[in-house]
Amino acid sequence: MADLETDRDRLGDTMATETATRLVHRNINNTNAVESNSALSSGEVTNHTGKHAEDLIQWKKHVERVKSKVLDQIQGQLSDLLDKALTESVQIFTQNGNHGNNHINHVTRDGTVTTTNDNSHRTHTEKDGKVFMDRRSILDDLFEINHIRTIYHMFISVLFLFIISTLAVDYIDQGRLVLEFDLLSYAFGKLHIVAWAWLLMFSYTLAVPYNALDLWGTLYHRSPLKVVLSVGAVLVLSALQAAVLGVLPIYVVFHYQLPPASRFIIILEQIRFLMKSYSFIRENVPVILKHKTKEGEGPRGEGPRFPTFSSYLYFLFAPTLIYRESYPRNPHIRWNYVGVTFAKILGCLFYGYFILVRLCIPVFMNDSNTPFSTRTLVLAMFHATLPGMLLLLLAFFAFLHCWLNAFAEMLRFADRMFYKDWWNSTSFANYYRTWNVVVHDWLYYYGYRDFLWLSRRKFRTAAMLSVFAVSALVHEYVFTLGFGFFYPVMFCLFAFFGVAFNFTLNDNRKSPVWNILMWTCLFIGQGVMVCLYCQEWYAQIHCPRTGTSFWELVTPRSWSCSN
């Protein structure tokens, strides 16, 4: 029995051992299978992860492309929408400010202030013309960005390089440091004549158009011969304008033989006074014509509401060509800003002086002694592209930014949008609208829109061409009197190439390639202008005219001068 139990125990242990062995082998096999499956799964996961990462990269690139396209498309639209929203908000604020308050103060000719209840007081809206609002100049905002300010500092460093190179050349040639500004002293000579001529034009513009319109407006609704009165007033005022603001500046320029910069001051101020006086009359005549005399009003109440003399005086100095009785004003004057801005203008003058002395005069003074040829012209033109473009940027920064902002700050004039981001233009149509907003507004409201109104909006192309023609003629008039010779380079570039580019490179061009093309055309155009005007200037010196016939006056001397 004991042996039987012992054999039974041994059999049980053997069976248990075999069972355990089988279980161990099974587990090992299962483990190997799991490891094999895990290895396969890891490979699949790795492949899947790599494919997913590649898809993410492709998706990110696609999103970046879509983002770039969307931003390019909505950039201009968003800017227009923001301007419109600001305009509408100003209009709503103005209307709310005037709502329920129809009392208007009138200043009579003897200085008394009378209050009347006028429900017909007109709030100026965008439909009536330009709406002014509180806005900063774009460059003032951009110069707060470090990257943009660094580009500005690079231009200043180039000015220092011009100064250093001039001093080095003078020291090598003459053995001493010479920093003379004889060109500036010559160009701005006879400033006392410029001063009294400007004072005469200003006094006339201040007194005559204002009082002429006041007299006509007072008599218009009382006179039975309204047409005769109006025609007579137009003829008399036109004759005075032609004599004082037309003939007088030209006489001063030629009689006193003013140097170039002094000539440009006289001619540009002549055009500014003409444009401002026209705007003042154009904005107030419709108000007088629409005025209706009410029954029972006394003699003082029969006339229309007329702008105050102080508003007209402010307008003559304000940096705008569109007349309004009031403009948005800043609360105080930043005199530090004014001083820095005028210092920038002075720096731009010296910058232009060094560009002419170092890059233009040495080249074209020598070229004037060589016969005229295509090779000479092409080489000189491409040599003049860089100085021409620098002079264009300096003129923009000195006048459209610094000069206008300085006067705007002194007058607390709040609307500083004298230009827009013309450098981002992808079409010449947009460039013409954004380069000089001050002049563009005048041409648009008093040229283009009035032409459409007269033609009942039938001849849009003719209206646009007429504006281009007037602008080209005025530009050529300024250059002809400023330089003292007739060479219609500006007129041809503006009237022919400008019109062609306006229709071909229009607002439908949105690609950055068109911005590159626009800048290339600007470089070439400035090179052509600087080259041809400099060649003609020295040709007039070396080969003066011998006669006074018409063809002698209009034929460029640089075409035949070889001395």
UniProtKB/TrEMBL annotation:
GO BP annotation list: cholesterol efflux; cholesterol metabolic process
Membrane topology of this protein: Multi-pass membrane protein
CC per GO annotation: endoplasmic reticulum membrane
Catalytic residues as annotated in Swiss-Prot or TrEMBL: 475
TM stretches of this protein: 151-172, 192-213, 225-254, 306-323, 335-356, 376-404, 459-479, 485-505, 517-538
Keyword line: Acyltransferase, Endoplasmic reticulum, Membrane, Transferase, Transmembrane, Transmembrane helix
Domain of life: Eukaryota
Cited PANTHER family: STEROL O-ACYLTRANSFERASE, STEROL O-ACYLTRANSFERASE 2
Name of protein: O-acyltransferase
Organism: Hucho hucho (huchen)
Source species taxonomy: Eukaryota, Metazoa, Chordata, Craniata, Vertebrata
